[in-house]
Every structure is written in C-alpha cells, then in structure tokens.
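re: ur question from earlier - yeah i can do the single chain one, its not a big deal. heres the input i used so u can compare w yours
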Amino acid sequence: MSYVVDFADVSTEGLESSPVAAALAGLRANEARYFRNKYSHVFTVEPASEATEAVDWVHRILKEERDLVIESRPLEATAFEVEGIKMAYVFYESGLSINVMYALEAAGKRAVGFKLSDGMEVPEELATQFKFARQKSKLAGTIRGSYFIIKGTY
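and the output i got, formated as tokens:
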C-alpha cells in the first residue's frame, strides 16, 4: 500500500521499527519537500516488499559499482521519473536512505547518494569507503551525506 509523504505533518508511518524512526521520518519528509518544491512531484513510498523492482535496482547498482551490500533491512522504497531523470529511494531500518539519480540521457548526471538519519552511526559497510558531510534540516535535524558517480549503464 503506497503512502504519500506529508512534509507538513511528519509521520513515522512505515518506519516504526527503526531505532531512529523520528529522524528517518524527518529525512523522508525532507526529500518529499524537495521534490514538491523543485519538480511539483508528490513523493510517494511503499513498503520495500512491494517495491522490489526499485530495491533490486538500487542494490544491483551498489553491488556492481562498489561491491556494496547493505546489511540493514529496507523498509520503504520508491521509484519515479522527473524531467528526464529516473530516481529511486530506499529507506532502511538503520536510518540510512539511499537514492539513485540516473539521467536517461547518456551524457547526463548519474549518482548514488547516501544520507544518514540524525542519531545513527555510519554503517560498517560504508565507513571505510565514504566520508560524510553534514547539513542542517528543519525536518531532519543534522543529515550526514555522501555520494559516488555511477560509471556503468543500468
């Protein structure tokens, strides 16, 4: 069952099993606000068990590009297209959010982004490969983020 993320009234719906559920909900709401303001896109998620195509696509890119396997359980995911860019998000029980930005035009930007919810530790599988910068968010508190450029075709 899909869920429209409301950034005005932040809810932990679907994220309750996370030890940082409130911070993860704020992070999810922050993304919803960004897409509403920049693209007029309604950010809708569904349980990861129902969004297997999006989760599998993100996990395939992680594995093939950086030999990464995320240990945490995916809770929710979404995939959509805006202005010639395929986007996918996976929100994990640990508080991690991974997004893929994949321009459909061959010369466009393609990257994987990682965001850590306020209060979570850097996952062991990411700690040695990435440095995380900090940013402040009214909805999510302090977000730590990192990314890498996608080189392959997916």
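The two ends are 27 Å apart (CA to CA). not sure if urs matches, ping me
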